[in-house]
Design goal:
alpha/beta, 4-stranded mixed beta sheet, about 45% helix, about 10% strand, binds iron/sulfur cluster
């Protein structure tokens, strides 16, 4: 990577005291661990739209598709204030080359899913999306987004961070000038990664790249990145990863001794049965990829989708 990844984040998750009660919701993993690899862009919709700290708590009220942001006791509606501010803020964020956003879960402003929604009489009537998070996702549909609650799940955490790194590589590729040849190389390096998430998208993207000449350059790239980010949203599972590991083992079969083949199959089987994490068979395969200098596999981002120090594959 030529430069650090920029990620938006709900400001309170970095430990900033911007919550309605004057507190924060520091998430040490995000701030201290992932923070080594990203430049955080903190956003607090409530404070940045002019509300004080502390302030009255708010909740979502009304239509789940167009909820209102209303104070809990006094019933003041802050929807227009926050949406007016969001309009400008989203344009500003659009110029920052963000690679994703981490939202504060359950917040009526920042929650990206499952936020409690009330009827005007205060009765809980369902779930909706925080009004800033909703506007953000509508403006930037391709950007990876997650909330800190879901990021506690190792598989979702790995999936989100993987998507962020893919998007960053895409930004860097696109900045160098998009070309059909460039897209072929980009796709070649991401093939196994895509296969681990969605075999269906792997096939569709392969066909798209193979027929690249039929498309205008911009339309081709638009279609590619849209399908790529959609495919990567499917979480890799032990079954899909096992398929990719077998694929890699197949590429190595001419070089490996029968002992080495047996050892690889054993590790893949242990992984498949949940006895060892993904990092175990991957490390062994990577060792052989280096040892036998297998060009095609050496270029695969599947082997190193994100910094090893994050240890994301030690837990899945
Ligand atoms: S959840 Fe969003 S609105 Fe609430 S304090 Fe955090 S950043 Fe601000």
């Amino acid at each position: 990577m030529n430069e650090k990844i920029k990620l938006g984040i709900s400001s309170c998750l970095l430990g900033n005291k911007v919550r309605y009660d004057g507190g924060h919701k520091l998430d040490p993993f995000l701030k201290n661990t992932l923070g080594r690899y990203v430049d955080w862009v903190p956003v607090c919709p409530e404070v940045e739209s002019g509300l004080p700290v502390p302030r009255e708590a708010m909740h979502l009220v009304g239509d789940p598709d167009a909820p209102h942001l209303v104070t809990v006791s006094s019933g003041i509606d802050h929807t227009n204030r926050v949406l007016r501010w969001a309009e400008k803020k989203l344009s500003e964020l659009g110029r920052m080359d963000l690679c994703g956003f981490v939202f504060k879960s359950r917040s009526p402003s920042s929650g990206m899913r499952g936020v409690k929604l009330y009827a005007p009489d205060g009765v809980l009537k369902g779930r909706s999306i925080g009004i800033f998070a909703g506007a953000f996702m509508q403006r930037f549909p391709l950007l990876p987004v997650e909330d800190e609650g879901r990021l506690q799940d190792p598989a979702l955490r790995e999936n989100f961070i993987e998507r962020v790194f893919v998007f960053k590589r895409w930004q860097e590729y696109a900045r160098e000038g998009k070309s059909r040849g460039g897209l072929v190389s980009f796709h070649a390096a991401n093939k196994l990664l895509i296969l681990a998430h969605s075999p269906k998208h792997y096939i569709a993207l392969g066909k798209l790249v193979a027929t690249a000449k039929r498309y205008r350059r911009e339309a081709l790239h638009e279609e590619y990145i849209t399908a790529l980010m959609e495919g990567l949203r499917f979480v890799a599972t032990a079954r899909k990863d096992t398929n990719v590991l077998q694929h890699m083992a197949g590429y190595l079969k001419k070089q490996l001794s029968s002992d080495e083949k047996r050892e690889i199959q054993e590790e893949i089987e242990y992984y498949h049965r949940g006895l060892v994490p993904l990092i175990v068979p991957l490390t062994l395969l990577q060792h052989h990829v280096r040892k036998y200098n297998v060009e095609y596999l050496k270029k695969q981002y599947y082997l190193t989708p994100h910094p090893i120090e994050l240890m994301l594959r030690n837990h899945i």
